[in-house]
Specification:
Blueprint (H helix, E strand, L loop, with lengths): L12 H12 L10 H11 L19
């Protein structure tokens, strides 16, 4: 997204590692490539993601 949702977000190492474990089940990756998924999981947990929306998470690290 861009606009009002654009920003710098803090994500704990624990959340990144949890997202890494999920992502690594489906493709070879490194922890830095799981940050997008970690942010999604964090914002979903905070109720900031509509469960009916379709979300695309970009893997910018090693993998796919």
């Amino acid at each position: 997204l861009s606009g009002k949702e654009t920003g710098i977000y803090k994500i704990s190492d624990d959340k990144i590692l949890a997202a890494y474990e999920i992502l690594n089940r489906y493709c070879e990756c490194e922890p830095s490539s799981a940050v997008g998924l970690a942010l999604y999981l964090q914002r979903y947990g905070e109720g900031k993601i509509n469960p009916r929306d379709k979300i695309l998470i970009i893997n910018t690290g090693k993998g796919i």
